[in-house]
User: What shape does this take?
Amino acid sequence: MAELNAVAVTGGKGGAGKSTIAVNLAALLSDIGYRVLLVDADVDNPNDYIYLGMERREAGRIVIRTPAIDQSLCDGCLECVRICPTHALLGKKGNVPLFFEDSCLGCSLCAEICPRKAIKEGKKEIGTLYDGESGKIKMISAAIRPGEARSPLIAHNLVRFFRQIDKNQFDKIIIDTCPGVANPVMQALRLADHALIVTEPTPLGLNTMKLSLKAIEKLNMSFDIVINRADVPSGITEAIEEDAAKRGARIFRIPYDEEIIEAAVNGVPVVRRNNRIRQVFLEILREVFSID
Amino acid sequence: MPMEKLEITVISGKGGVGKTTVSSSLLYLFHNRMKVVAADADVDTPSLHLILSIEVAEKKPLFLSSRAKIREELCSSCGICAEKCPFGAIEMGEKPMVIEYMCDGCSVCEKACPLNAVELVPFASGNLIVGRTRFGFPIVTAQLEVGEHNSGLLVNEVRRKAFEIYKEVGGDVILTDGAPGIGCPVISSLSATEYAVIVTEPTPEALQGADRILEITRHFRIPSGIIINKYNMSGFLEKMVRHFELNGSRILGMIPLDFSVVESISNARPVVEHKPNSGAAVAIKSIFDELVEVLDIG
Assistant: This one.
């Protein structure tokens, strides 16, 4: 893994441009001949495939094991209720326990402890794994099922999917994370050895960048800063630059350009149609990936 | 008929489409007309307080989480805890090691350990902050510790506190600014709310986010209305509007792409206050009127 450059694109603020940047880095790398593994780890909204105009395929269902109680065998001893870590099983002594599916983590401790072997394995689908190809890019992603609250479990399944992939097939790995600094972000960041923190020149961007920096510090990772829409007048760009300079991070500035939006709408990475933006991404490749 | 509570939750699915822009302006407009309480449910990366500014009255750490700790003297390194952990938070070396920022505190390891070598230690996963905005209305916000993901519980605490204040002051409406995404904190933001305002923008990526939110609001039977922000930013608008019409979704209104919004955010003011005659502010005011009518709270 040491030879690989695995770079995570992250940032506290939603809509700052994480996916745009991840996808364009992947596209540019692919265009100049590198084999890229793109991990879309925004498990709430994995939409890198849309930005790439890629057909994604279902690569697997994310299923947790839930208890299915055989009523004819259960004597209501409540051992399962006692062991359930999340109180997904509740009941009165002598009665078959009630099962609350939304709280179940799928740990199977209930089935293992049941003295009468009355708990069989049920299944609950909480999300989907996807993959797809475009040029020299292979994309993998995972999506939570709407209405499901278990994003960390989805992220965990994506990490497992990632680990099964033979990394020798790829020259570079790009990981696109969720916004924020919660567990799914941390799981994704752990797959990388360098982070690009994407922000925008607003007080909200500056504030959330500081939160991302805290997360990166916990992981002891190297990082750089990407300011998206850097030329939008706000008076904050300088504050971000000052903060980044203090920490010894490099700063890349992506200008506001209507073509970035058009590219997102049409599913064509902007580096393929706009030379000004392409130059900034080439600079990132040079500096971060040491690619000329 | 008086309701026990009227809460409006502003949500988007995709981040960065303008939730806080809309929330801060709607709060300002509500405040001019009735008694409003603000709640920031984006506990990962709260930002409402940056626009409304907050005079903190109360800040308290919340012990909502616990973390696994392995008592090495009892551990035989059998590895069951690492194998069982649903969050991949225990790494097996010579001894099992808990990766703290990944532990959910679910207690599977504690209960699975045959030697009772795991204990759960409570810790503060975030702070609950109660205060007043510079406009004078109350605001409840929170800040999650980095890497924590009991954010749903913290969201519940924020909303519970906001409801408490709402009852205390005889409020008319609670406006809750939601988190991006569709996971745990979002579901916690939406459960038992009275109305969802879904903010989106005309791109396929934002439409996918809005659609995923609509699946949730339909599932929970929460009435909702859509705001299309930066509606003139792309040619995708027509497709988007047709899509919502086919779904029978209500569009509350549209806001033009307007740099007054960026300027207002940079000045830490709601756009309806900072640039009341700008295109965006005028559009938000008419959306507010529409919302008041839909909710029948004029």
Observations:
- The CA atoms of residues 195 and 223 of chain B lie 5 Å apart.
